[in-house]
Every structure is written in C-alpha cells, then in structure tokens.
Design brief:
The chain is an alpha+beta fold. About 35% of the residues lie in helices and about 10% in strands. The protein starts with a strand and ends with a helix.
Length: about 60
C-alpha cells in the first residue's frame, strides 16, 4: 500500500483507517520509501505514476 507523509487530512486518515494507505508522519526522510506491506517492509516506487494512481484511488474510495 502507498505511504503518505505529512500532516494527514481527514480523507487521508479515513483511507488509512480503511487500510488503503499507511501514514508515516510529518518528518519526511531525505530518500523516502513510498510503498509498504502488511509485514512493514518498505521500498521505493519504480514508477511514480503508479504510486500517484494508487494514492488517488485510495482517497477516491473513501469519498464514496
């Protein structure tokens, strides 16, 4: 699932509660990971467009 950094909005908190994204706090590392799995492994995105699409989809799901 995608990782979100920064102060979460209400929609981001709802997406996290639904298990669609994971919130990693306000401090963004110099070279941040963008994906995580249920076992808490993290890694960088190979394709930024795929990451953005996954975040958009997660947020849209919570707005329905």
């Amino acid at each position: 699932m995608p990782i979100l950094y920064g102060l979460p909005t209400r929609v981001a908190r709802e997406a996290a509660a639904a298990g669609k994204v994971r919130l990693f706090g306000c401090v963004v590392p110099a070279d941040p990971d963008q994906w995580t799995c249920p076992q808490a492994h993290t890694w960088k995105a190979d394709d930024g467009d795929v990451l953005i699409a996954a975040i958009d989809a997660a947020i849209q799901d919570t707005r329905r």
